[in-house]
Design goal:
alpha/beta, binds the ligand CC(C)=CCC[C@@H](C)[C@H]1CC[C@H]2C3=C(CC[C@]12C)[C@@]1(C)CCC(=O)C[C@@H]1CC3, binds 1,4-dihydronicotinamide adenine dinucleotide, transmembrane helix, two-stranded parallel sheet, 11 helices, seven-stranded parallel sheet, about 350 residues
Length: about 350
């Protein structure tokens, strides 16, 4: 039997390393002296000394090349949540994650760190200071969440001290920061189309928005603390800024920071949710003829109008996690990073 070279504990691969979180993670790992392979279906940048492997994570052979002599794998690849393609989510998040686990076994990888999502327990109704022992959503709000649940279960169940393969899942929520293609761009696009005038509900709902560097910090801590005798094995961890904020205050700070007016007029939550549901049903019926993606999907209205914030006490206790960048500073850095989205730019 061919002998495998023992992988160095500082040699890792980032699946989804071209993405928003993945790229920040790659940069931080390199700063901390890790040797990093990037694996992604698309190449978004080049970094000296960082080999890029372009491929689909459903392709085991392609993965095996990127995992050669790697001891830690960070899996943060996923189709974007806004996508409505059920088959794609099933293929990438479920079948693809099975392939990742299999390839890790074959390549002799010792640790797998999955980027899951706090949304795996969110059903569209209030969650206040939710802990990791909340049950998975029985009625997930979309295909993205449905497949993130299956994906997390697959990864956590694969944890085996006997096989020397340890796994952990990080559940971030509302990641934001420089280069995020979702949150700030969607918000500013909505404002530019004159649709950011209304607050859904009374505006008091608290939400976690988590600065990308804190999420990265949580991933690296998890990788470094994940050992056969640690409580992390096979567990999920919320990583947040630990500063729940009113959803509409956060949006207003970003909008005003970029020179736009904050929303002022209130609309009842149930009315907006009902309209969003109706539009979503109409879009579903019309789909064979025309593809419409309404701004106000039921999922977005639920995210904008309910409480959803989580406790990160378990991460503090088991891995010594503390957010590195406070929310106020994180918002300033984020606003400054989008000069092209400033009003009038
Ligand atoms: N952005 C957020 O607020 C949150 C994100 N997450 C999770 O964090 C992870 C990273 O998210 P983001 O960086 O925001 O997303 P992103 O869309 O910027 O990055 C995902 C990356 O995965 C790659 N990818 C997609 N399908 C692939 C495939 N079949 N094979 C190889 N690569 C593939 C994409 O090309 C992309 O570069 C995802 O797993 C997401 O579910 C969890 C909670 C919140
Ligand atoms: C905390 C968390 C899970 C955030 C996720 C980010 C996105 C889901 C949000 C980023 C911009 C948000 C946004 C809306 C909904 C949620 C987001 C897409 C609205 C569509 C809600 C209704 C409005 O009045 C306009 C909002 C624009 C921005």
């Amino acid at each position: 039997m061919a002998t495998r070279t023992r992988p160095s504990s500082k040699r890792c691969a980032v699946l989804g390393g071209s993405g928003f979180l993945g790229r920040h993670l790659v940069e931080r790992l390199v700063d901390r002296g890790y040797t990093v392979n990037v694996f992604d279906i698309r190449q978004a940048y080049e970094l000296p000394g960082v080999p890029f492997h372009q491929g689909d994570l459903c392709d085991r052979q392609a993965l095996l090349v990127a995992l050669k002599e790697v001891s830690i794998v960070f899996h943060c690849a996923s189709p974007a949540p806004a996508n409505d393609d059920r088959a794609l989510f099933q293929r990438v998040n479920i079948d693809g994650t099975r392939t990742v686990i299999q390839a890790c076994h074959e390549a002799g990888v010792q640790k797998l760190i999955l980027t899951s999502s706090a949304s795996v327990v969110f059903e569209g109704t209030d969650i206040k200071n939710g802990r990791e022992d909340l049950p998975y959503a029985k009625k997930p709000i979309d295909y993205y969440t449905e497949t993130k649940i299956q994906q997390e279960k697959l990864v956590l169940e694969a944890c085996s001290k006997e096989k020397g393969f340890l796994t952990v899942a990080i559940r971030p929520h509302g990641i934001f920061g420089p280069r995020d293609p979702q949150l700030v761009p969607i918000l500013i696009d909505t404002a530019r189309r004159g649709k950011m005038k209304f607050i859904i509900g009374d505006g008091s709902n608290l939400v976690d928005f988590t600065y990308v560097e804190n999420v990265v910090h949580g991933h690296i801590l998890a990788a470094e603390q994940l050992k056969a005798d640690s409580p992390l094995c096979g567990q999920a961890y919320h990583i947040t800024n630990d500063e729940p904020v009113r959803f509409w205050d956060f949006m207003s700070q970003i909008l005003e920071g970029l020179g736009y007016s904050a929303p002022r007029y209130h609309l009842p939550y149930t009315l907006v949710y009902g309209i969003a549901l109706l539009l979503w049903l109409i879009a579903l019926v019309l789909r064979p003829l025309i593809r419409i993606n309404p701004t106000f999907s039921p999922m977005r209205v639920a995210l904008a109008g309910t409480h959803h914030y989580y406790s990160c006490a378990r991460a503090k206790k088991d891995m010594g996690y503390q957010p590195l960048v406070p929310l106020r500073e994180a918002i300033v850095r984020t606003v400054e990073s989008y000069p092209h989205l400033r009003k009038g730019a």
